[in-house]
């Protein structure tokens, strides 16, 4: 069964601290994996995309990793800011199915001052 | 550049009423889709379209209709609203005509629907 599981479900950290969000998937065949950030009351916005051959990709203070062998991805946030408070959604594309993306339920991150 | 525009942002309906959620994009994207987002659930695909005149069902299509007469517009119709359709609805588009995640999804700001 094609699934995307994210952990933790929610996370609270202090401003300036680092954190790591996890995404495990069973989607096959794998095409790519995206991390989206969804601010409260807004639509999701793409942070980064990981393809099969990529291990690490950075976007400012956000660094995504992918281990295609273990089917795991992580999103590391460095020196967190209050504006990082949001839901982070992992989305995996199944390579052979038209129009089929698999969404995780998201990790709700709260950054406290 | 407006991106993906959804209207209305908020709507309250009574059970049995019908309504249309509007979605328009100005990026000339082939792929458009509708999702619903419920607390504790991931985004779930309702319907999608890979081009004008072509639509298909997603994961949770029951109770919803769509049409795609132009590249720009992809309205979602609720035929007879039910309380189970209370949700936040997102329209998204992508340049990828295949609908694959090769193309980044661009989401609208969402439409919050309450059915009493």
In a nutshell, what does this entry contain?
The complex is a heterodimer of chains A (113) and B (116). With 113 residues, chain A is mainly beta. Chain A contains no helices and 11 strands.
Characterization of this structure:
The complex is a heterodimer of chains A (113) and B (116). In chain A, a hairpin with a 4-residue loop joins strand 7 (62-67) and strand 8. Chain A has strands spanning 4-7, 10-14, 19-25, 30-38, 45-51, 56-59, 62-67, 72-77, 86-94, 101-103, 107-112. Chain A has 113 residues and is mainly β. In chain A, 0% of the residues lie in helices and 58% in strands. Chain A starts with a strand and ends with a strand. Chain B is an all-beta fold and 116 residues long. Helix content of chain B is 0%, strand content 47%. In chain B, the strands form two sheets. In chain B, strands 2, 4, 5, 6, 9, 10 and 11 form a seven-stranded mixed beta sheet that branches. Chain B has a four-stranded antiparallel beta sheet with strand order 1-3-8-7, with no helix packed on it. Chain B is globular, with a radius of gyration of 13 Å.
């Amino acid at each position: 069964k094609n699934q995307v599981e994210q952990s933790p479900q929610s996370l609270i950290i202090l401003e300036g601290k680092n954190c790591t969000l996890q995404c495990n998937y069973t989607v096959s065949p794998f095409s790519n994996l995206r991390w989206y950030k969804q601010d409260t009351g807004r639509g999701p916005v793409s942070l980064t995309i990981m393809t099969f051959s990529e291990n690490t990709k950075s976007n400012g203070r956000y660094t995504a990793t992918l281990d295609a062998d273990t089917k795991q991805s992580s999103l590391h946030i460095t020196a967190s800011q209050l504006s990082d408070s949001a839901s982070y959604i992992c989305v995996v594309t199944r390579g052979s199915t038209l129009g089929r993306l698999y969404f995780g339920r998201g990790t709700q991150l709260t950054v406290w001052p | 550049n407006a991106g993906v525009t959804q209207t209305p942002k908020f709507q309250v309906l009574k059970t049995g009423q019908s309504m249309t959620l509007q979605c328009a994009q100005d990026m000339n994207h082939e792929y458009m889709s509708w999702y619903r987002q419920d607390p504790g659930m991931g985004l779930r695909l309702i319907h999608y379209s890979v081009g004008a005149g072509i639509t298909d069902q997603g994961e949770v299509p029951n109770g919803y209709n769509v049409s795609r007469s132009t590249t720009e517009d992809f309205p979602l119709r609720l035929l007879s609203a039910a309380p189970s359709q209370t949700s936040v609805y997102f329209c998204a588009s992508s340049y990828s005509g295949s609908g694959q995640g090769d193309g980044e999804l661009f989401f609208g700001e969402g439409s919050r629907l309450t059915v009493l």
